[in-house]
Amino acid sequence: MPPVIAVENISKSYRLGSIGGSSFREEFSKGWANLFRDSTPPAQEFWALKEIHFSIQEGEILGIVGRNGAGKSTLLKILSRVTAPTSGFVKIKGRIASLLEVGTGFHPELSGRDNIFLNGAILGMSKAEIRRKFDEIVAFSEISEFIDTPVKRYSSGMYVRLAFAVAAHLESEILIVDEVLAVGDAQFQKKCLGKIGEITSKEKRTVLFVSHHLESVRKLCNTALLLQNGKLITHGSVDQVLQTFLDQPTGTQSSTLIRYPEKPLDQFHLQKIELLDEQGELKRSLQTWDYVRFRITFHSPRPLKAGAVNFHLNTPSGTRLLLASNSPEQSFTLNYHEGTNQIDCIISKLMLAAGHYIIGASLAVPNIECLYDGVDHALIEVQSKDIYNSGLAPHSQRALVPMDCHWELP
Amino acid sequence: MSQSPPPPHPDEPVEWTTIIGAHQGSWDWKLSELWNCRDLISLFVWRDFVSIYKQTILGPAWHLLQPLLTTLTFTFIFGKIARFSTDGVPPFLFYLSGTILWSFFSNCLLKTSNTFLSNSGLLSKVYFHRLSIPISTLFSTLIAFSIQFSLFLLVWIYFCFQESSIHPSLALLAAPIAILMIAGYALAGGIIVSAVTTRYRDLSIAIAFGIQLLMFLTPVIYPLSSVPSQNQWMISLNPLTPIFELFRFSFFGGTPCSLLALGFSFTLLLLLLTVGLILFSRIEKTFMDTI
Fold first, then answer.
1. How far, in Å, CA of A201 to CA of A261, rounded?
2. B273 in Cβ contact with B187 (< 8 Å)
C-alpha cells in the first residue's frame, strides 16, 4: 500500500527561557538579521523532536503515545502545518483535517448552524460540500433542537459533538484527533470511536490519534508509534508498542525517581517525584502495602501564598484511584517560594495490587486557577508481595485495591 | 527496542500534494492556495459582519451613527469654532468625506495588524492560508465603508442640487482608485505590523497611538491648500495625502492633486505590499513558536 505521509528526518528545536514577547530595546542589539532568519541556532535550545523518520500507509489508524514532553503535540503541529520543522521534510498526499480542541474556531455568538459552516470552512471544506453534508452532520451531533441557538449557550459536551461531527464528515484523506474526545460523555466517545473506525474501513481514511487513554488507543488503532524525549522509540503494531510503553522504565534511572523534562522558568512545572521510604531514602522498589512518601519537587516562578498540590494516581487505562489535595480538601497550608519547592504526600499503606499505575501532580491556586495541569504522567510499578503469606500475592488483573480485610465467623 | 529508520525512497512513486519543510522562499506566496480559501474568506467576512452587532439594539445602524456623530462634532469644532478652511466645500460634506475614508483606513489597519495575536488560538490548531484573515478583515471593513460611502453619496447628491460649486464630473472615475489605494495601504501596513508584532509587542501599542497622530498629518479635517506653503512639504511627504486629495477632487472638483505625488504614493504602495507579503510569508511558518 502506498504511503500517504512520509516524515523524513524531522527535528524541531525551541528556545528555552524567554520565548518571544520581548521588547524592542532588549532585542534590538541582537539585530534585525536574526528576526526573520529561518533556522538560526538559538543560544539555549531544546529539541522537542529529533530526527524522526517514519511513514504512514493509507488506511492506517496510528496511535501516537508517549509521556508528556515526548514530542507528540509538536509532531502533530508539524503534520497539521501549524508550525514548521527546524530541519527535515514531511510529505503528505491528500488533505489533512485536524479535529480541533473543543470550541476553537467556533464563534460563541453564532448559532450551531452558522458554526457548522464556519468550522467546516476552517477545516478546508467548501460551502457546497458543507451544504451537501449539513443534515448528516446535524444528525450525527445529536443537537438538532439547538441548531439555531448561539453556541455560547451550549454545554461543553455539545460543543465537542458539534466539532467532531463537522470534522468527521470532512472528506479529507487524513484526520488528526488530539485528545479531544476526553471531554465528551462516554456514550458519545464510543460513537466517535466507532465513526472513526467506520470511516477508515469504508473510505480508506488515515487517522492519527493521540491520547493518554491507552485503552482507546488499543481499541481504535491498528498501529502505534512511541515517542520518548523527542525520539522515535518504536513504530509497529499497537499491542507491541503499548507493551513497550508500559514496560519502559520511567524517568531516567528507576521507577522510584521520576524526572520531568525541562521547561521555561517562567512557568509552573514539576521537576521530579521521588518515592521514599520511612527513613527518607529513595526506595528501590515499590510493593503492595508499602509505606511510601511521594516527594514532589516543583518549580514556581513567583512566591505564592496557600497554593495547592494535587497528587493523583490512575490506572493505565485512566481510572482515577486517588486524588489527594493538600488544600482546600486536607487544609494543609503550603506557601510556594520562588524557585524550587518540595512537598511530601505520605501514603502509610499503599493499597495497590501488583501492576502498573500512573502518577502525576498538578499545581493550583485552590478553587481559582490551575497553574500546571498535571497531564504529564509517570508510570510506576507496584511489585507483588505475598501479604497474606499464602503464596498468592494480589495482582491487578484480579482486583486493584487489596484492602486490609480478614475473615471471621459471626 | 529501537527501530532503525526505514531507508529513504529514492524513486518516489507517490505524488505528494504537500511538502512541509523548514525553509520557504520569501517569494512563495502560495496565491493559488489563497484562492482555494475563498469560501473561508467569505465566511470570515460574514462572521465579522454578523457577530459584531449581536446583542445590540441598533445593530448595523452603528455603521451610520459613527461617521454621522464624528462629522457633526468636527463640523461644530473645526467648522464653527476653529473655523478651518474647507476649500469652499460645505463643511458637513467635507468632514464626512474625510471621516469615512479615514475610519476605513484606520479600522482596517488596526484590525489587520492584530491578525496573529487575536487569532492565535485558532492558528495554533489548524492550517489554512494565513493571509485569509487579513484579507477577510479588509473585506469586512470594506463592507462597513460601503455603507458609510452610500450615506456620503446621498449627502453629496443633496448638495449637488443645493450648491452650484458641486456637480458631478468625469473626475468621479478617480474615486475608486483612491479607495483601492487606501485599502492597499491599510492591508500592507497591517500585515507588516502583524508580522513584526509576533516578536515585538511594542509595535501593536505604537500603531494604535501612532494612527491617531497620523490623522493630523493627513488632510482629513483640512484641505492641503489650507496648509501654509512653507509647511506643505511636511504633509506632502505623507503618502496618504495625495489619496485623500484625489478622493476629494473627484467629488468636489477644485485643484487636482499632483500626479507626481500620486505616482510616488502608488510606487510606495507597491513596495510596501511586497515587503509585507515577504515578511508575512517568512513569519507565518514559525510564528506559533514565538507568539
1. 38
2. yes
SS3 B177: helix
Pair (A199, A287) in one structural domain: no
Q: If you write DSSP's letter for every residue of B42-104 in order, what string do you get? A: HHHHHHHHHHTTTT-SSGGGHHHHHHHHHHHHHIIIIIIIS----TTS-HHHHHHHHHHHHHH
> Would you write out chain B's pLDDT as a tens digit for each of its 291 residues?
344 444 444 445 567 888 888 766 677 778 888 888 899 999 999 988 888 777 778 878 888 999 999 999 999 998 888 888 888 888 899 999 999 999 999 999 999 998 888 888 888 888 888 899 999 999 999 999 999 999 999 999 999 998 888 888 888 999 999 999 999 999 999 999 988 888 787 888 889 889 999 999 999 988 888 888 888 888 888 999 999 999 999 999 887 778 899 999 999 999 999 999 998 888 877 777 776
User: Residue A149 domain-assigned?
Assistant: yes
Residue A358 structural domain: 257-382
Q: Same domain, yes or no, for A169 and A137?
A: yes
Distance from CA of B5 to the nearest CA of A (A): 6
pTM for the full predicted model: 0.72
A194: CATH: 3.40.50.300
Domain shared by A226 and A118, yes or no:
yes
Best mutation target among B39, B126, B204 (most A Cβ atoms within 10 Å) is B126
Is A235 within 8 Å of chain B by CB? yes
On whether ipTM exceeds 0.90, the answer is no
Question: Which residues from chain A sit within 8 angstroms of residue B21, using beta carbons?
Answer: 84-85, 88-90
Cβ neighbourhood burial of A133 (10 Å; 0-12, 13-18, 19+): buried
Contact A35 B122 (CB under 8 A): no
Dist. CA B100–CA A342, nearest whole Å: 61
- What's the structural domain count of chain A? 2
Task: Tell me the one-letter amino acid at B6.
Answer: P
Mutate to test the interface with B, among A13, A36, A76 (most CBs of B within 10 A): A36
Q: What is the DSSP letter of B131?
A: T
DSSP A77-93: HHHTTSS--SEEEEEE-
